[in-house]
Structure formats: structure tokens, C-alpha cells
Inverse folding.
């Protein structure tokens, strides 16, 4: 397993520019040897404009970007990619496009077998996990299944939000929604990444990075908090899922 | 079409008790001749406790409640129902249970053909519409389709929340999410019901009730606001969907 993943909660942190809060971690993650990154913009409707934003940001960090929506053969683009970045937007739309274009198993193979570095942000992080059952997005379209690329054997909830006790809104809190997920049988753990946090996975080691804590929800157990720097490798065990 | 519907945004309004903010409208809607209401609690995990809450509230308004989860034959319970109430919780879990128990077409028939009064709240309102594509809930389980009971030919977004410009959270606003829905082809209008509002449908007349305005999103058009009392019957036209 040559897996290398950078799974970011959010693309933009309050007060900052696109991917600004994690630019150091991005540069460290892709390093000196990667020259070109394959960008997957399917989570947003306007893919040209999305690709422009992403290209500008990655060029400022020293990387060229190829957006897969310009490729004649997307599967071939994944087969040739040095590195992959899937951006945020609507998770259902993104996963539906990945299935329609036969990219789910191709990305999984490239990342887990060939060691192609993979970065996801927000919806791009959701689809990297075992399933999108813990996305925050609206089901505006339906993919054939909520099972996803499966680069890790657990779920992530990006943009995790603590309950605001001053709010008068009566919809479910994020914690209540994740607790409802774990009322269902055989549901995996959910790593809830607050905005500003991200998970680095290097083979079988997982480390929390960023500026905020993460909250882990496991079925039948009280939720627990982890500080940046925490070793979360235990989440990667039990990999009968591969 | 003998349709009678009361579609409520939220079960509890800030500072009030369960269904307190809409109890007058409930009493007016079910009126003097209805004695028993069939309650459908599938959106929550603890259905016994849910049925107790609902029974107490409706008894205080003069109605007896039968919870369908106690019925030996749920389809038969719908066939005999004088009136139906579907409560809130997780919309995906609710719709999956309705399909598993073969209740979707049975409820549609009872309400549209036999004129059985139907009340929904939150998730119960989502499943009453054409589809659950505009639920706010997390997809903790998957129903066979997001197509729903279809008592009206449009979508509702319950618990609609205006963007809070003081928030530092960077996840999509509700308006952005609904705009993403309308980026998809052939998507129906979405009536966004703020907490405190509800839609009354009597045959082909639809009226906004409650204490807050509603916001209407139509594909390719600017969003529009409606005050309580507004006639929204135009949303019911074009009923080729039946
Ligand atoms: Ca999103
Ligand atoms: Ca709900």
C-alpha cells in the first residue's frame, strides 16, 4: 500500500483566499518531484472557471494543472496522472460524474497501487473515503451508489460545525445528524474535520494537520476530540475493505 | 382531486413546544369530523418515544393517534386511515422505510383519490412533494429513488435559513445549495419554507400560512419572497405528473 493522501476539510477558510490556509501542507505534500497535477472539477457546474481558479493557485505553488474536463479520455488522463486533486462543490454531482466516466476504480487503483499522491478538499475529501453517507450537501442528483473511492475505510464529515447555542434555528445540529448515522447498523467511524483541519495519510500512518481540532464519532461510543498533530493511524486498521 | 394538505416547515419553533407554533392551523385543518390520525414515525430511530410525543400533542387538540409502527399490516393501516401525519427526522431513512413497506403509492392514492387529509412536518413535508432532492438531511441510508409521494408537483426546502453574514463558516449557504439544484436540467421549483411557515393545499388552491415569509426558487429566475396569506396556487399547475 503506497497510499499518500491529503484530505482537507474546506477549500477556503474565513478571511483567506482559495486554499490559502493549507498551502504549506500542499507544497510539502506534493513536494519537489511532482510537476503536473490532474484536477477534477466535476463538483461545480462551471468547470472552466473552476479550473482557472485552481490553476492559478497551484501555479503560485510551482505546479502545472491539467483539468480532466478538457481531456478527450478522462480514464486515460487518470492513468497518466502524476498527482490528483479533486475539488469541492456538490458531493452527489461529483460522485455521479466519477461513476459515469468510469473513474472511481481507476483512481483507487492509481492511488493505492501506484502511489499517485491524492489531494481532496470538501466534496473531494468525501468521495475519497469509504462512502458519501456523511456529506453535508444536498442530494441534487443521485449517483448509482453512495459507496465512493474508498481510499480510507472510514467516513469524513468536512466543514464540521459545533452547535451554536445562541442559534434559534431548530434544524438538526451536525452532531445530531452524525449520531443518526450511527443509529444505523454497521456504520463506520466518522472523522469530523472542522474548517482549518486536514488529514495526512502516508501509507498506514494518519496525522491530523491544520489549525483546528477534529472530533471523532464512532458507533456506540462517546465522541472524542483530537488536537492538530494527533496520530490517527488506528482509523486505517481493519482494512478488509480493500 | 380531493387533495387536502398541511405541509409544515418545522415541528418545533424556537422557544415553543412540539407543534405548538402551528397548533391552531392543525386544529382548523383536521377540524371536527376527524377523530383518529395515523402517525408515521419512520424518520426517527426511537419510534415508541416519538409516538408518545405525538400522541400527547394531538390528544391535547382532541385527536386520537394510531402509530403505524404498531400496526401488524402498515398498508392496511393506510387503507383505513381517516387522516395521516408524517413527522420529521431523517428524510432518507423515512423515504426508505416508506418504500420498503410499500406505502408510497398507497398514501398517494388515499390522499389524492380518497381525500384523506395529510399533514407533514419537516422530513414529512419533504416526502410529500415530488422528490427529496431538496432535503437538508444527511444521506445516512439510501432509498431506491429520491422520487417521493408526489402530492404536489414541486419541491419544498423546509427549515429554510437565510445566509448569516456574520458567520465565519464557509460551507455553502442554503441559497447556494438550492441554486446548485437548479443548475441541473429539468428541476422543478423549490418553495423554501422558513421555520414558522407552512403551506395549506385545498384541492387546487395553495396558501402560505404561519409567521414567516417563504422564498421561491425557480430554475433560471431570480428568487421571490411571499408573505403569509399569499396565494401560491400557481405552483400546483401543470399537473401532468399525476
Ligand atoms: Ca459542498
Ligand atoms: Ca431532518
Amino acid at each position: 500500500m503506497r497510499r499518500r493522501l491529503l484530505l482537507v476539510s474546506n477549500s477556503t477558510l474565513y478571511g483567506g483566499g482559495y486554499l490559502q490556509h493549507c498551502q504549506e501542507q500542499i507544497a510539502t505534500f506534493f513536494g519537489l518531484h511532482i510537476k503536473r497535477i490532474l484536477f477534477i472539477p466535476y463538483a461545480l457546474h462551471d468547470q472552466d472557471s473552476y479550473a482557472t481558479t485552481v490553476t492559478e493557485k497551484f501555479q503560485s505553488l510551482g505546479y502545472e494543472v491539467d483539468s480532466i474536463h478538457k481531456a478527450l479520455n478522462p480514464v486515460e488522463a487518470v492513468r497518466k496522472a502524476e498527482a490528483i486533486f479533486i475539488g469541492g462543490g456538490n458531493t452527489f454531482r461529483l460522485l455521479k460524474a466519477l461513476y459515469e466516466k468510469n473513474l472511481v476504480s481507476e483512481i483507487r487503483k492509481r492511488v493505492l497501487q501506484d502511489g499517485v499522491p491524492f489531494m481532496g478538499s470538501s466534496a473531494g475529501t468525501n468521495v475519497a473515503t469509504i462512502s458519501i453517507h456523511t456529506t453535508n450537501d444536498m442530494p441534487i442528483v443521485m449517483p448509482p451508489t453512495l459507496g465512493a473511492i474508498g481510499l480510507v475505510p472510514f467516513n469524513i464529515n468536512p466543514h464540521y460545525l459545533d452547535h451554536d447555542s445562541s442559534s434559534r434555528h431548530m434544524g438538526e445540529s451536525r452532531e445530531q445528524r452524525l449520531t443518526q448515522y450511527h443509529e444505523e447498523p454497521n456504520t463506520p467511524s466518522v472523522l469530523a474535520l472542522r474548517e482549518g483541519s486536514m488529514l495526512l495519510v502516508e501509507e498506514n500512518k494518519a496525522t491530523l494537520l491544520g489549525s483546528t481540532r477534529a472530533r471523532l464519532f464512532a458507533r456506540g461510543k462517546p465522541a472524542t476530540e483530537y488536537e492538530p498533530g494527533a496520530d490517527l493511524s488506528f482509523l486505517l486498521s481493519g482494512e478488509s475493505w480493500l
Q: What stands out?
A: Helices of chain B lie at 23-30, 47-60, 74-80, 91-100, 104-112, 123-128, 174-182. The interface with chain A takes residues 10-15, 45, 89-90, 93, 132-142, 145-146, 159, 161, 168-172, 177-178, 180-181, 183-184, 187, 195 of chain B (CB under 8 Å).
